[in-house]
Amino acid sequence: MSTDEVADKMSATNIADEANKQGTVEGGKPHKKPEKKEKERKDQKMAAKSKPASNPQQAKNKASEPQLIGITCKKSEDLAEWYQQVILKGEMLEFTDVPGCYVYLPGSYKIWEFIQVFFNERIQKMKVKNCYFPLFITEANLQREKDHIEGFAAEVAWVTEGGKNKLEKKLAVRPTSETAMYSYYSKKIRSHRDLPLKLNQWNNVVRWEFKHPMPFIRSREFLWQEGHTAHLTEQEAGKEVLEILDHYAAIYEDLLAVPVVKGKKTANEQFPGAHYTTTIEGFIPAVGRGIQAATSHCLGQHFANMFDITVEDPNQEVKEGEARNKLKVWQNSWGFTTRSIGVMILTHGDDKGLVIPPRVADVQVVLMPVGVTAKTTLDTKEKLYNEVDELRRSLEDANVRVECDYREGYSPGYKFNDWEMKGVPLRLEFGPKDSANGVVTTSRRDQAEGKARGTIQVSEIATEVPKLLETIQADMFKKASDEYASRRKLVREWKDFVPTLNAKNVVVVPHCTGGPCEDEIKKDSSGQQEGQEVDARAPSMGAKSLCIPAAQPEELAQGTKCVNPKCGQEAKMWVMFGRSY
Amino acid sequence: MSTDEVADKMSATNIADEANKQGTVEGGKPHKKPEKKEKERKDQKMAAKSKPASNPQQAKNKASEPQLIGITCKKSEDLAEWYQQVILKGEMLEFTDVPGCYVYLPGSYKIWEFIQVFFNERIQKMKVKNCYFPLFITEANLQREKDHIEGFAAEVAWVTEGGKNKLEKKLAVRPTSETAMYSYYSKKIRSHRDLPLKLNQWNNVVRWEFKHPMPFIRSREFLWQEGHTAHLTEQEAGKEVLEILDHYAAIYEDLLAVPVVKGKKTANEQFPGAHYTTTIEGFIPAVGRGIQAATSHCLGQHFANMFDITVEDPNQEVKEGEARNKLKVWQNSWGFTTRSIGVMILTHGDDKGLVIPPRVADVQVVLMPVGVTAKTTLDTKEKLYNEVDELRRSLEDANVRVECDYREGYSPGYKFNDWEMKGVPLRLEFGPKDSANGVVTTSRRDQAEGKARGTIQVSEIATEVPKLLETIQADMFKKASDEYASRRKLVREWKDFVPTLNAKNVVVVPHCTGGPCEDEIKKDSSGQQEGQEVDARAPSMGAKSLCIPAAQPEELAQGTKCVNPKCGQEAKMWVMFGRSY
């Protein structure tokens, strides 16, 4: 079976499988030159155009008002369909004819740029420097660390042809750059004076996975940053691992308004070739599944060993003629990916579409003249528009990212829905009545109807709007955070394990932290358990360990057993388990 | 012959072939686990460590002062060797075991980031939005524009395996993204209201070239931005093409202090699939060769045709029931690459190493305490260091990017050479005498010995240093610009054509702009011409048309013939020809 057939097979059960939905399965069918008819049929099937259609039928009937087709299903009823509609109609992402590879449209790419600025500023303070290493890695180089290659072998894409010729030796498209970078580290690091060495790159990586692809969440190509550092001591390396984890958590919590749990991976789940892996774990309430949000690894001395990255011990007392001992360096690597954008969308989006947190919204405020009808005089309209323009300038001067919607021929309802679908956090409306009262009407995207609306004095717009945006940001985080907290259940006994998962929670359990025991738990928590009622839409996958939370819920009582009754070992830590992406 | 063998063969004559120099040729030899001995031998061969070596011999003799091995050859005598030493010792770039693929170290990557900020700001004002399209393009998609695929077929790298499986259909690693993006354009652009559509992406592309690779200048993978826009009218598209060209020229001239000539490509040299190509052309005085600096293309309606990107004519007067005409959109694409960094290095570097223009220097000023000897009291030293630190703060407050060099155990000479090799534009020295006189001693990197040094009052440092940096920037540009102008020769007759090229100039000649005539000129200007004395180091390549300069030197007299005597056609334009990279 070819890889693509495998992918297609597997994606048949996928919760958001674009290949099937778009009919662009790569299988055995010859690629046809697209014909206009077929294209139109496909587009109609996709339904999701947020712009007014301009097909011939409509063109004939010019008076018809543009219709906006919003999100046509509920998040709580069909998350997969909802997610696909939201990212397409919200103009975050587009599918391509390469399954598992997606277009990051300006809507999502801008969020990535905000993340870049935020993170660059923090790592520059840590004296990390940005750089760029090649996309291609030789097979010999990739194989130099055994655990590492074993972890990645199944998902490496290989280039075997250049132009019309076969390459003598095939080249891996980087799945990550440890092996690409550490030959350089070996050469560059000649003395303890060259330490620490701290490099970071923002790039694209490819992991030719055959699990279900899902936009942002699991794709064959994704964007990320990967930091790689070398230190003289384990202690120094360990300190940095946690500093980076804090920055990652800050991106999620302070920028994306998404709560995460900090912790350490169990041996089963750590990065191939790592000494240990720290992680932040997110949660998707709609399905009750955990999701790995970002990881920061201490690689220990494994790669230093294989790549011969050593320095002479600067602290050794040496006698005349005595050589200094060689020390292997301590290395870290840490990565943060575009998956984060998917987590953000899944966390905040609602039945109307996207909800973007203000700090990462390209458009924070949409400002709209309203109340202009066929009976409004041109003078009144001109005056109103000039006032709107003045409001815009005030907001821009206050560093608010604002866009005015002056579009003609669209009803206010259309425009409201359009901006709501795109997730703009705050709408300001300004009509003749508002003008007379010296106020603007506000409408918060994150609040339910009835609680969303308010007014701000025109004279206070430059201070009150930024304040309101920060309130929205904080409220979005609080809501998500409360939800996650309420779904993280302390479970002490196995009998409660699966039912608690089935009720869309993750569980924190006493555990031995052993690998075989984890495998057993995964098996025993999968599928429909006897005597349990299972939500038909709940994934039948088993639960895996998500992390050992840094903040342990309570001290383990002496003699507490592992939650797995088949295990019998003593519990070592509280470990968070869950079904997961 | 395999592609790698071809590459190796060709690179044997290469002016800066890393594969040969490093002995990392990819040929048939099995990859060995690197042994320390072999590694050390190799590193010694490379010689070029700018850091003090810490091999066992030296460790024994701890008192020995670190020796800096500077650039060991002259730019004017062996440009290839000089270039390689300068980029390695200046820590701009590193070679890898994949021929033609390089590491962009922080020294060069930082310049790329300055370019990104500068260009992003300008295109954002033009309402261009950043995004990201996939690395992989299906073969079917790549082939949809005939001229385009013909232009790139020979240099596409193909992925044929994923994990351990063969892919059903191989995937191209993008050489450029026209075909990857325009399926989306076809879907997105439904009405004239969707125009203009202006997207840009910063990414990596691969062109598996078999010409000589040369770091920055011609590599198999490079970084760039590629802008792709669609417009309703040719006029609007054409206006943007030139706006972008102006921005590209500004990156070179205002940031990199490198002069360029704006113009249009002849039909022979335009982008595959373009309607027309505008270009900025640089010049490398050391070899007298032109170099394409960046291009901005109007693609016309070629891709709109193949990808069916049409809108209904909004300006057509339609009668009841009449359908509107379909208009094909007008498209542009424009790209700017990391090649620019190589041009900058080749332009400004000198026998001591890199010279970085202040506006793109990560470290603009290195500040150094001097005059501290074994006889200096600790009090005096501490006072001096505190004063240096205060100077640093003043400079940082004035937004000067400054680094202090407090390294112990290195002579001032070592430090001076080290920073000079890295191209830091301005050195400030501050010793006890300077302190007593209330001045800092300045030393400009861009000026020859004897003219480089001056002083600035400590009290004026926050205004005078930024001013001096701007003077350095302006002087670097003027020097390069004067040089280029003096080497751009107006040539009216064929007899002067080759001798003028051989004297390391480019020529501006009356030309018919015909393709076959250009081919003839290339042939007739290659190799050693009879009766001509040729510089042994001059490339024996023929001259090609570089551009039709936008600023024509003078009006062509009625009846002027093409410079090629075999052609006989009337000259249409002054065309710049040259040997080129």
UniProtKB/TrEMBL annotation, chains A, B:
Compositional bias per record (Basic and acidic residues), positions renumbered to this chain: 35-46
Root EC class: ligase
EC number(s) on file: 6.1.1.15
Catalysed reaction equations from the record: tRNA(Pro) + L-proline + ATP = L-prolyl-tRNA(Pro) + AMP + diphosphate
Polar residues composition-biased segments: 52-61
Domain Aminoacyl-transfer RNA synthetases class-II family profile: 109-357
Example of a GO biological process term: prolyl-tRNA aminoacylation
Annotated InterPro entries: aa-tRNA-synt_IIb, aa-tRNA-synth_II, aa-tRNA-synth_II/BPL/LPL, Anticodon-bd, Anticodon-bd_dom_sf, Pro-tRNA-ligase_IIa, Pro-tRNA-ligase_IIa_arc-type, Pro-tRNA_ligase_II_C
GO MF: ATP binding; proline-tRNA ligase activity
A GO CC annotation given for this chain: aminoacyl-tRNA synthetase multienzyme complex
Domain of life of the native organism: Eukaryota
Region (Disordered): 1-66, 518-540
Coiled-coil intervals: 374-401
Xref: SMART domains: ProRS-C_1
Keywords assigned by UniProt, alphabetized: Aminoacyl-tRNA synthetase, ATP-binding, Coiled coil, Ligase, Nucleotide-binding, Protein biosynthesis
Pfam short name (any one): ProRS-C_1
HAMAP family from the UniProt entry: Pro_tRNA_synth_type3 (MF_01571)
Family: Belongs to the class-II aminoacyl-tRNA synthetase family.
PANTHER family with a match to the protein in the record: BIFUNCTIONAL GLUTAMATE_PROLINE--TRNA LIGASE, PROLYL-TRNA SYNTHETASE
Protein name, entry field: proline--tRNA ligase
Species name: Salinomyces thailandicus
